């Protein structure tokens, strides 16, 4: 279990310590923490206890994510997110994943950026809701004017669907992953709102304890 001692005072925890967006940001602009780049064939993931980026596993295949891959701070996929996904009772219990398209090749992870949410993929992995929000880098010279997934070339979404449907494949074994439902901006914002609610339902006590400690 987490406690307020898990908040690293010297290096902000990307999940708990960062804000999901600036107070004056437009409705669809969010802050994203990037775990992987489009060059990575090793699965990097946030170590939730320490807040540092760790090696989760080497990928078995040569495929790499077709976009920057990370998550939205202070989100959690639990009951509220699962309620938006038919035929499942649970979500994966992780922060809400985000894929960010950028025209310029960003070559390093463990960074934060601002991105405009344009849609998402309702991924079901082993019977758990595991949505992938799709976004574009704010101010991008090619994709910066995209506001909904309908404005994005279809091949971009198809590559994401292919990656997430195959990145866990092992020869001779079946993988129970569905990535059939692609949704637009408005539904993506509802998924984000549900993930924010799940976060505060499960981890709000940490922030309350930290505030009490600061005021003591």
From TrEMBL:
GO terms for molecular function: inorganic diphosphate phosphatase activity; magnesium ion binding. Its EC number is 3.6.1.1. PROSITE patterns: PPASE (PS00387). One of its GO terms (biological process) is phosphate-containing compound metabolic process. The keyword Transmembrane does not apply. It comes from the Bacteria. InterPro entries: Pyrophosphatase, Pyrophosphatase_sf. One of its GO terms (cellular component) is cytoplasm. Its cofactor is Mg(2+). Keywords: Hydrolase, Magnesium, Metal-binding. This is inorganic diphosphatase. The lineage of its organism: Bacteria, Pseudomonadati, Pseudomonadota, Gammaproteobacteria, Cellvibrionales.
